[in-house]
Amino acid sequence: MKKILILGCGGMLGKAFYEHFSKKYIVEATDIDLNEKWLKYLDVRDYKEIRKKVMDFVPDFVFHLAALTDLEFCENNIEEAYRTNTVGTENAAMIAKEFNIPLVYISTAGIYDGKKDLYDDYDVPNPISHYGRSKYMGEIYIRRHLTKYFVFRAGWMMGGGKKDKKFVSKIIKQLQKGKKEIYAVTDLYGTPTYTNDFAKNVDHLIKTNYYGVYNMVCGGNASRYDVAKEILKNLNLSKKIKLTPVKSDFFSKDYFAPRPDSERLVNLKLRLRKLNKMRGWKACLKEYINKDWHEKL
User: Fold this and answer.
1) In angstroms, rounded to a whole number, what is the distance separating the alpha carbons of residues 11 and 170?
2) Sign of the torsion angle spanned by Cα atoms 199, 204, 209, 210
3) Angstrom distance (rounded) from CA 255 to CA 212
4) Fewest CB within a 10 Å sphere: which of 24, 94, 202, 265?
5) Mean pLDDT, rounded, for 204-223
6) Number of C-alpha atoms within 13 angstroms, CB side, residue 103?
7) In the Cβ-directed half-sphere of 283, how many Cα atoms lie within 13 Å?
8) Does a structural domain hold residue 67?
9) For the segment 150-175, what is each residue's pLDDT rounded down to a tens digit?
10) CB burial of residue 123 (10 Å; 0-12, 13-18, 19+)
11) Is residue 27 part of a domain?
């Protein structure tokens, strides 16, 4: 069995990766937050410790998932954002190059400025937040220094159950608290991305030698309001909960970091290579809610 070292495996995407890849590979899963018994401590900001881990474990692949993804935290803690998201990525890339190990890096739709309605893999990024810029700088370093790499740009992530800190979880937790009215934004657009489908499609790609940068999101696009509406529908709460459309400035006090008006991605390269295994976001959202949330309301 081939071996995979996963950096930053303690979050919602890491959960999906561990559950999928540990069935087919020997996996060493690491993070600074040891919230699972299968995690071992490793800080991606520590070059020497990553290198030691690679020398001891001798992986066939290094998966770099570690990142600070809270946009507001990144705006308020700029150096920490770059130390983790950029320098941490540079560390992983340097070591992958030294030992000739293919690197898998998870990037984001947040690297675009949102001026276009839809972005394919060949559009030139222009990040408007420190989060987006710190992630894009990681992309640039990998592309300049490695030949064996996969960069996967994800959209609005959903999945992970209790580890979900994103939009779906935030809506459902409001419902758990008894809220009878939900406010959802209509003027920000993106592409939901199911962690389980994402992990499966990554597995499909690493078996090829088609290295490079790929958009990898679910099919279809949506506003935050569209996703909230679909959540209520799947929970049979459409008639019991009032869903109120608002503009993004309604939440400007809490969500002050600049966000692209559109983060809509299309998996053009995956389609061209006939490697797109991502399902439509509505089907994935339904599966996710039925699997992780339905009985908790």
Assistant:
1) 16
2) negative
3) 33
4) 24
5) 97
6) 31
7) 8
8) yes
9) 999 999 999 999 999 999 999 999 99
10) middle
11) yes
Q: CA nearest 6: which of 37, 34, 42?
A: 42
Per residue, the 3-state secondary structure of 202-239, as one string, reads HHHHHCCCCCEEEECCCECCEEHHHHHHHHHHHCCCCC
Q: Which amino acid is at 179?
A: K
In a domain, 132, yes or no: yes
Instruction: Indicate whether 249 belongs to any domain.
Output: no
Mean pLDDT of 23-35: 97
The percent helix, strand, coil of the chain (3-state, each to 5) is 45, 20, 35
How far apart (Å, rounded) are the C-alpha atoms in residues 12 and 169? 11
CATH code, domain with 56 = 3.40.50.720
Whole-angstrom distance, CA of residue 284 vs CA of residue 16:
14
The amino acid at residue 134 is S
| Residue 154 structural domain | 3-164+191-220+265-279
Helix H or strand E encompassing 56: helix 47-57
pLDDT at 296 over 70: no
Q: Are 91 and 50 in contact (CB under 8 A)?
A: yes
Q: Tell me the two tokens of residue 131.
A: 């989060």
Say which residues have a Cβ less than 8 Å from residue 76's Cβ, sequence separation at least 6: none
Region 117-134: mean pLDDT is 98
What are residue 62's DSSP bridge partners?
Answer: 5, 103
41-56 confidence digits (pLDDT tens) = 999 999 999 999 999 9
